[in-house]
Structures are given as structure tokens and as C-alpha cells.
Amino acid sequence: MVSGGAIQIPSRLPLLLTHEGVLLPGSTVRFSVDSPRNMHLVRERLLKGTSLKSTIIGVIPNTRDPEHDTDDLPTLHKIGTAGIAVQVVGSNWPKPHYTLLITGLCRFSVSSLLKERPFVLAEVKQLDQLERYTTPQRDATATDDGELGELSEKFYQAAVQVLDALSLEERFKKALPMLTRQIEGLKLLQKTRKTSPDNEKRVTDVQSLYEDEDDDGDDTAALERKVHGANMPEAALKICLKELKRLKKMPQSMPEYALTRNYLDLMVELPWSKSTKDCLDIRAARTLLDNDHYAMNKLKRRVLEYLAVRQLKTSLKGPILCFVGPPGVGKTSVGRSIARTLGREFHRIALGGVCDQSDIRGHRRTYVGSMPGRIINGLKTVGVNNPVFLLDEVDKLGKSLQGDPAAALLEVLDPEQNHGFTDHYLNVAFDLSQVLFIATANTTATIPPALLDRMEVLEVPGYTQEEKVEIAHRHLIPNQLEQHGLTPQQLHIPQSTTPDIISRYTREAGVRSLERKIGAICRAVAVKVAEGHTLTKTETLTPENSKQHGDKAAPPELPIVIDHIALKDILGPPVFEMEVSRERKSSMCSVHNPQVYYRNMQNLFS
Ligand SMILES: Nc1ncnc2c1ncn2[C@@H]1O[C@H](COP(=O)(O)OP(=O)(O)OP(=O)(O)O)[C@@H](O)[C@H]1O
Fold this sequence. Notes:
The N and C termini lie far apart (about 85 Å). Helix content is about 45%, strand content about 15%. It has helices at about 35-45, 145-150, 155-165, 170-195, 195-215, 215-230, 235-250, 255-270, 280-290, 295-310, 330-340, 355-360, 375-380, 405-415, 450-455, 465-485, 500-505, 510-540, 545-550, 565-570, 580-590, 595-605; strands at about 1-5, 5, 10-15, 30-35, 55-60, 80-90, 95-115, 120-125, 320-325, 345-350, 390, 420, 430, 435-440, 455-460, 490, 560. The chain is an alpha/beta fold. The radius of gyration is 37 Å and the shape is elongated. It has four domains: about 1-140, Roll (Archaeosine Trna-guanine Transglycosylase, Chain: A, domain 4); about 195-270, no CATH class; about 280-460, 3-Layer(aba) Sandwich (Rossmann fold), CATH 3.40.50; about 465-605, Helicase, Ruva Protein, domain 3. The protein has 22 helices and 17 strands. The strands form five sheets. It has a five-stranded mixed β-barrel with strand order 3-5-6-7-8. A five-stranded parallel β-sheet has the order 10-11-14-9-15, with helices on both faces. This is Lon N-terminal domain-containing protein. One of its GO terms (molecular function) is ATP hydrolysis activity. Keywords: ATP-binding, Hydrolase, Nucleotide-binding, Protease, Serine protease.
């Protein structure tokens, strides 16, 4: 590439076709690229090549790359600038494109086209020496002021003429008027800045009118309206307006544009001052808790006390309730009922396995792929600032090099501090004092002591067999029937069968497996009911199709009653052997009517 002190550009250059901005030797210009040939050039030359030579490309001004690579090439502008790609940034937002930062080296003229696809390759002739332009000047688009960064059409044409001027004298003649115009522009801008606030308002009014005209302007104007309408505190509003100002000056192709935009979108969506109205009626709350949950009397009593005190003293900075007990005993479900009794939104935050404090407090925005933490995300999801947050499994919090999440939770739960909770991503305080936090855990042994200290532990013990039978018949069976689209007229699980499900197919303190087994029974029965339903609906039973369907064609006699043998057919052989006393066994047999059972079984599993 070096010959006799002067640097030679390659005689064959891939060409980038541009129609906005002109790259002049010695200047550095940012180009946004999204058309097919140009995209191919970036992918196949700039991103794949490893040598310095592969980063040199020809930039042809005044020529638009066709929208499809099957389209013919337009006539290329005759003179271009060879440049070195110093930066390539790819982004998928708002559509796939690359942003190239190119420093101009020297002019060239196109001698002949070698190929048009997948990108344009041409034989070129170098027009001037390289040494004079080796110090890159300022990035032509990265001006301090957005207004200055925009090249007018006239300016653009003038720049093309400067490029085309081969002799120094001619080039000077073409460049001088451009410089004079730019100096005039700068003077005018200085004058506008010194104008009275009244004038300034007019300028911004005109500016906003102008912005409303194009899509992008529309977008930022709408965002600005949302920022003002989000009812956020002074500090947050100030940050948003600052970010908005930055956003307006940024070209959309800049990766930071999307980041700032996402940040602002979140800020306007957060429920800074949106809340639901509490509608607590202690009597209704008691009925609701009783209706939703069988047994758990101690827990329900304490929850009612807690709610009653909250009703009398709304600004209660009381302890955080923490339900501790084995899995499936209804801890989450009580939390949900509390939200319903208060008329509040409910959100569950699973903390099991969380070992990074940024999960709670978010990542700083400088971090690649930064996000807000789970608390702020939860608030965005529920859309109000006074939900019930259930911090599930606080006993399973982990610790790692990325900080202790328990320490971040301490701040969240401390009523003295949480009105000023600062998520790293938001970088401004969000008031959490209206949020009602409830925690759950399987054991207190692994809850960090400082956290445990802020909580009131309510033990939720496991259930006895009798309690489980009641829970099954009052809650689990009706719920499962509804979830599977069945009615008690279609499926009947007698009280005598439930203890068998509990002791032979589950071994747990709670009722979660029991619920799953009931679900499995519902599914098996649903298939039978649906089969019978289709048959009666679509065809009448004739001797022929009866033969074709075999015995299965007979619609089941409803309700399908699940007794011990049906249970075995559906759930398989018992997983746990039951030690049943003789008396109990005989009493179980007496409730079973062999004839009814036989008929049902024939329908169900023949
Ligand atoms: N006393 C009860 N009355 C009615 N339903 C109950 C009762 N206890 C548990 N359930 C039901 O059992 C299922 C499991 O309960 P839930 O998910 O609340 O358990 P959990 O204690 O939060 O479990 P985990 O610790 O695994 O999260 C739910 O469908 C719930 O409605």
C-alpha cells in the first residue's frame, strides 16, 4: 500500500452508496446503513475481514442504494472518497442497521464496475495523495448542537461540489462560501440564545410545531406529554426532562437512543402517584378469609388483627408478616386473600435462588443490558403504588460476589427508609411506603438474622388427615372441577375416597400434591365426558358404529363416581402402602355399592 512515501489505496474497492452526508478526505462522518447492498458490504467486508486493507472502502455520495438487492443499480456518482471504517455498531432497533464511523482518506474516480451483488465492487483510480489528510478532523455529524448537525440540502450539494473539485484552487473556491455560511449560522445561533425568555418560548413553540410534523418528532412530543402527565415527584421529573432533551439531540441510529427511550418509557409507566383505594371491612374480611381457607385459625386471627390495626391507623409502620411453614399449606393463598380483602393489587416476587443484589435494586444504566430490579418491575406490572407484595421464599436468598440481596431487601422492608428506595436503574427515589409487604418461608433457620428481626413470624403448621379431607371437599375439588370445565353432576369424589388419595398417593404436610392428584382425576374424567358428549352430538348409536367403537361408544352414566378401584385405574398402583385397621377397611367397603361401581367402571374404562 505504500509506494515512494505516498500511501496507495487498493485498486479495487467495495463501494458504500450514500445519499446523506458527504465524506471528504480528512473528515470523519457517521453513516447509518440499512439497505441490502450496503448491509452486505458491512457484513462481508468490514465484519469478516481481519486486515487493515479490509477496512478501506469507497464511499460514493449522491447515490441511493436500491431498496431490494434484485433492483438495478442507479448511475453512480463518478467521484468518491476512500475511507477507513474506524467503528461499526450494529443495532436491531428500530430496524436492523449498522452505524459506521468512517474517516476519509483520499478521492478516487470509478473506472469500471466489477460486480453489483451482493455489494458493489469497482475498479478505482486514486485521485490525490494521502499524506495531507492523515489527521482526522472533528466528526462532522457529532456537533454540539442538533440544529447545527443537520446539513441542509444546499450545504449537501456544496459538499458534493467540493468533493468533485480536483484542483486545489477550485476546491478552495467551492469551500469558501460554505465556511462563510457556517460562520453566519453560528452568529445567528448565538443571537437566538441571547433573546428574551418570551422569544425563547416562541422558538420552542415553533420548534415543537416543526417536530410534530415528522414521526420522530411526534414520538418525542408524545413522550414529553407523558412525562408531564405522569405525576412524578420533582426530582424524577427533572431527570426525565434532562434525558428527554438529550434524546431529542440524538440520532435514532445511535445505540444510546434506544437505552434512553426505554428508560423514559419506564419512568412514565411507573405508578408514581397512582393507587387503589383501600376498602377494608373487617367483618367481610373475616368471612372472605374463612371462605377461602379451612382451618388455620391462629393465622387468620392474627391477620385480622393486623388488618384491623391498619384500618384504625393507616400510617402504620408495623412489622412485616412472615408466614413460615411447609410447602403447600396455603401461605401464598392467604397473601392473595389479604390483597382481596383490602381491594389491593397482588404481586408475588419469587426470591428463591436470588443471589445478586441487582435483582432487587436493579443495574446501573451504564451496565450493558441493564434493567430495573424486581421491586420496580413489580410496581410497573401492577400499575399502582400500594399493592400487596408477597416476597416468596425469603429463606432461600443466596449470597454472591455481586452483593448481598438480603441487604437490599432490608432497605425495601424498613419503613424508616423505604420511602426513599432508590433502584440503581432509575437512579431516583421511589416511595415504597404504601406497599404492603408479606413474606413467606419454609423455615426461619436460613432467613438472614437482620431480615428476620424486622418480621413477625407466623407459623403455618401442616394439616392433619381430617383437615386435608375437609380442604379437599370444600376447596380443592370444587376449584379443580371448575378449572377442568366439569360439574358435580359429572364427577363425584365421595368423602370415603379422599383419605385413600391422601394416604396412598401423597405424603406431604400441605395439600399441593393432593390438589395435583385431584387434577389428574378431573382430566381422566373430562376425556370420558367429552367422548360421550361428541358421540351423542355427532352420531346416533347404531349396531354398526357400536361395533366400530366397541364398548367405548356407550356414553358414561353420570355422575362418574370415583371409588377405590377407579382411583387405582386412574392414578395407578398406590405409591405408599396404607396401614389400615380392619374396622376401617370394612367400613370403607360398606359404603361401596358393587353394582353402582360396576356400571360406572364399565362406562369409564372399558
Ligand atoms: N387451608 C386451606 N384452605 C383452602 N385451600 C388451601 C388451604 N391450604 C392450602 N390450600 C390450597 O393449596 C394450594 C397450595 O397452596 P399455596 O400455594 O398457598 O401454598 P404455599 O404454602 O404458598 O406453598 P409454597 O411454600 O410451596 O409456595 C392452593 O391452591 C391453596 O388454595
